[in-house]
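Quarterly update from the structural biology core.
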Amino acid sequence: MEGNIFRTICQSCHTNCGILVHRDPEGSISVEGDPNHPMNRGHCCVKTSAIPEIIRSKDRLQYPLRRTPTGFKRITWDEALSFAAEKLGEIRSKFGPLSLLRCIGAPVSYQCRDGFRQFLGEYGSPNTTGAANLCMVPRMTAFRAVTGGMRAEPDYDQTRLVLFWGTNPLASERFGSYSAYNGFNRIIGRLKERGVKIIGIDPFRTKTVRLADEWLQIQPGSDVALGLAMIHVIIKNSLYDKDFVASYTTGFEELAAHVQSCSPSWAEPLTGISRGTIEDLARTYATTKPAAIYEGNGLDMYANGVESVRTVAILIGLTGNLDVPGGNVFLPFASQSPLPTKPTPMEKRVWYDKFPLFPEVPFTAVKESLLKDEYQRPRAMIVHHSNPVLVQANEARTREALRKLDFIMVTDIFPTSTSEIADLILPMTSDFECYGYRAYSSTEGGFLALARPVEKPAGESRPVFEVEYELAERMGFHQDYPFHGTTSWIDFMIKPSGVTFKQLDEEQIVYATPPVQYRKHVEKGFSTPSGKLEFFSRIFAEKGHSPIPAYADSADEIRDRRALSNKGFPLLGSSRRPGRFVHTRFKNLKSLSKSYPEPLAWIHPQDAAERGIREADTVEITSPYGKIAIKATLTEDTSPGLFWIDFGWGNPTDGKANINVLVNDQFFDPVSGGTANRIFPCEIRKA
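Predicted structure, tokenized:
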């Protein structure tokens, strides 16, 4: 910090850009990008303009609130924590430690990732759930099955070809998983300058697709068919990397036999992409060395998401593009401490027998256990910076399930649809009112950056780790706690990296690892049971799943489009997230919503004309599960019969329509519990 300038990071989305916060003598705040932060190099998106409003918004939760028969009543922190300790203690005594759930949202900050994580372990429960079944974790599960590691990041600065598959990084401003590329906003420009070919694979003509050299307009949810057909072409024509396959992989013969029938002709009617285009894509990817694939959240929200990304991971390995310069690389990452520090019995998680390969409890399992009134169902839930009522498929069934809990405690900065049904609401400090940190990866090395408080907490809001420790203390769980507040949490978490909070506070950015080393598998192998990249996953086979990715329906209802049309649902709907917002957050902020005040249904002009719908008309969208009213906008960035709706509205602070009212929640990915939020049958009528 220099004078009235605070050097910190923005934690409003996953990118965690470096920012400089200026405070003038009157207390007004302004924000600009930090030119010395490797992630953004001075670039800022519109979300940074909302930081002063986040801090001072009239919508902020400022005091603890307890539900009463006549509504929520303001109470003191002492009353709130005593009530929480009493309820959680009673439930543990009556139903055992497995009765508690911890529900978290997307970990845009590590406070969100780690809040009440140690508490859950001290309570004795392994039951963490949240949005993971819909975002990134299905892809992580897929990569782990093939490579034994997390997602391998694109090495943009050395590649000759990039496939942007089911991702729109120009809107999300995320080109990797916490990976810094010396200014992410310059990546497309640098690729263009070097003549790198860019191919977009997406059902919609997104902002990223518009800048691509080629657009493959795939049918939603058919990505696994495209991946298998590409593998078919590469093996049939001996375009795979023979040395890499022979030395560092296992299961090639089984893979080759498996994809014999998965020809481009087979995939054409499933994907909507011609067999010639599929063959050209496979040849281009296999023969352009090095090449990189960046897959995105567009692949998660189907009932076959894990299989889709397993094909992507196999393609990367099959072509020898794994952990080589310009391919998909395991970048260095600063080591962090594990939480909880006490091991918890993973095999006792809710529905572990059905989802043993997923690293946490899919929310699907939570919901079905509650609705079935299972004897071992959860009884209490701590919801930390999460909003399952809006995020999960079929809002009505989600609400019905959560009402079966004996106690719900919500910690957040704004009211949400989930806090509306809570028994206790605790106000948290925003990410700009307390310390935090973030670990990043890059080719230059893994580094850490400190987030600093730039304003005093709003009202009586408190940092999550102080609240967590005090609750643990009241319940007698605190003796083995590794931290007691925010700064001691940071020191504990970054200790394995050799960096301290004091060092971060002095330097703000500290590199904790050497630069990237490529081809680590030559000496170390892969972190799989065989030590090799596995085309044939024995772990999947042991757990009753196909050891090699197999084509499966992305959503149960769309198998017979003619039957759907006869039932009055001739169209397919999908979802999109406007880049200026973050999931279900910030729709209430005028600085962000003034230019995008409500969700829109993006409809092809042909579909609109057939229904007498014009630009800005209010339309009623009906699916087999519900209906919503929303404004229409016409676009040719989709195809006839397919439209998309903006996601993330529906909180009490915005009062708009929630797309997930329309989505089926009873057909889901057998590995991840992911539901088909991105594809559902429907009809649109002018309201």
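Residues 77-95 form the longest helix (19 residues).
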